[in-house]
Specification:
Layout: E1 19-21, H1 25-29, E2 36-42, E3 45-51, H2 58-72, H3 80-87, E4 89-91, H4 95-110, H5 120-125, H6 139-146, H7 151-154, E5 155-157, E6 161-164, H8 177-191, E7 197-201, E8 204-208, E9 217-222, E10 235-241, E11 244-250, E12 255-257, E13 263-265, E14 280-287, H9 290-303, H10 305-313, E15 318-326, E16 329-334
Antiparallel strand pairs: 1-9, 2-3, 3-7, 4-6, 5-6, 7-8, 8-11, 9-10, 11-14, 12-13, 14-15, 15-16
Helix pairs in contact: 2-8, 8-9, 9-10
Length: 344
Amino acid sequence: MHIRSIRFYSLILPLTLALFVVSCKQDQEESEQTYTQYEGPVFGTYYRIKIDSDNNFKPQIDSVFQAINTAANSYVGASEITSLNSTGKLENPSPTFLSMIKQAQHFQQITKGYFEPALYPLIKAWRFEQGGATMQVDSLELENLMSLLPMEESVMISDTLIKVKKEGTKIDLSAMGEGYAIEGIHQVLIDAGIENYMIEIGGEIFARGLNEKGKTWTIGIEDPSKAATNSYDNIITKVQLSNQGISTSGSYRKFYTDDQGNKYPHIINPKTGYPVQHHLVSVSIKAASPLVADTYATACMAMGTEKAKAFIAADSDVELFMAYYVKDSLKTWNSPNFYKIATQ
């Protein structure tokens, strides 16, 4: 699973560990029911879905993925977002694209711009999209690109037309692609009356009901200080999910190091246009909506430790776990109900 240190960029991202389903030795010794499992590559990462049903949901799952790729994958030449970014307008958007861009605008507003889909030109200027970086962006260029923000002022959205109001504005929706896909698959399974399942895409997981052993789904969160080993033993904490989603975003895998050895995460602060300079390295958001968890995790990583705490404290339906450094010591913090299991 990947850590979204560059989640604003595209739907094509590297596979890394962030969240993973865990079980204890005692569980492994108990009888286990067989769940149907679907897995494979998607959006540049990997998906795994376990469903307590013999029905074949592969066509519906593939349909969700295809709809998002066609609408919002900027690496697909014929996608709607590529057309919008190339021509400055998109007539008669598909229901998927219209829903995604309206949701993106909503989250841009409620996070006060820390979730910013119009950040794409800035990311290209810093060359993070290519996996490298430059710390020499011209200040005048930076000022011009910052004038394209926020999205709500630079993009006009109607049911029949999406149009750029400021020339040079380009939109990227990848920071919500996985959460949106999980939401879609979750709805497919709800409509089919399925009670027990787990949906995992990259750094996102949604779980409902019970796992194969008849127990609540248990999710492990990776320890940022031990990430280099890529081991399933490197768990900083565990959380149980019951009809909830969790998303982890982090900066500890993707960063730029300058000539003096200073590290700059591949995360742009939408308020300054520069890479963030805080010590927050990992954020995990738990929420009833996987899309909320996904977008909030991205926003909180841009905010930094104290602003993220205050933002989550104002929303009683969302919980936060974070890891951050104080000098060379890794610290953690969680909101009061992060470990509480939701009632079905």
